[in-house]
Amino acid sequence: MAQLEQDPHPLLARLRATEPVSWLDALGGWIVTRYDLAATVMRDPITFTVDDPRFSTSQVLGPSMLSLDGAAHDRHRKPFTHQFRPAQVRERFVAFIGTETDRLISAIRPAGKAELRRQFAGPLAVAVATEALGLCDISADAVLAWYASIVAAVSEVTRGRPVPTAGTQAFGQLRDALVHNIAHGDVSSLVAHAMRAPEGLRHDEVVSNAAVLLFGGIDTTEGMILNAIRHLLVFGDRDTLAAVRDDADLRSNAIEESIRLEPAAAAVDRYATRPVELGGARIQRGDLVTVSIAGANRDPAVFNDPDRYEISRANAASNLAFAQGPHACLGAHLARAQTTIAIGRLLDRLAGLRLNPDHPHSPRGLVFRKPPNLHVLWSP
């Protein structure tokens, strides 16, 4: 388990080459590491479902679009879908993201140094998520505290442990804030749109789905931003950074390559609904099947020299970082927009941006992978 949390890629590569569907006692289930097999599992919710009482997120947040399949999943997801389409993301969020990004950079710029997770990426992700859900009257510190407790609770459940009290309390406080928003909040928020939808979600169902969007939106976006800037600073020279800063298409591809090399969400869980053979393994009904997105994204059958960070990789966007099938990430366009704007503004406004050599910056995490801290320097 420690290897999966710290540096899983050597193990995932060995499994992918010799046994692409492997039983791991540490997970209590199967792990899928080959690209084609990973895509097969995610695209087949009839055979590989999330609708199981063991599903970790539902134990913390309750039933939602993330933990349901079939008609129930469609009913929970559809009320939120429209607001995450590319046109709506551009119309509603791009200007807000730019303003918030500039505000955060202006706050840290004079110091010539910062820890980007807590001073930039986390606050940006929180600001956008709370704007989307109409929780603007809640402090960023409070939301980050809820989010940290929820992430920790999901990770504990993934390890086979009970939901910790802190996670239950954090969700309770988030639920109270969302219920207040439903009654008194911004009529343009995602929560308000969902309550008006013809699918007729109940209050508790809207709250669970909004919590999933908040929790997922903060974590994956924070991780995307941190991993992308880390990859650029580790592997890019001055000319590369200037090119990424000035060329929006190259910047977009650099981000796709970053989420390929180190996806912020490294794995997703499914449960077999029937006995099935997959990649030579005989999976039994009820077995846990963990799709290693981190492993699939480095499959040499799809990505040449897969352990190399290559900002101009032609098929970087073929990565599985946002999953596939009915559970493909609803907020992918919003997360990409935030990361693209954030990276462009950081490189533009912080001259000589570089990693602080006095601090470690390797990514960590079993399910959600990013540097615990990312200390950087620049010329103020």
UniProtKB/TrEMBL annotation:
Q: Which domain of life is it from?
A: Bacteria
> Which InterPro entries does this entry report, sorted A to Z?
Cyt_P450, Cyt_P450_sf
Q: What is this protein called?
A: Cytochrome P450
Q: Which family does it belong to?
A: Belongs to the cytochrome P450 family.
Q: Name one Pfam family in it.
A: p450
Q: Name one GO molecular function term.
A: monooxygenase activity
Organism whose genome encodes this protein? Mycobacterium spongiae
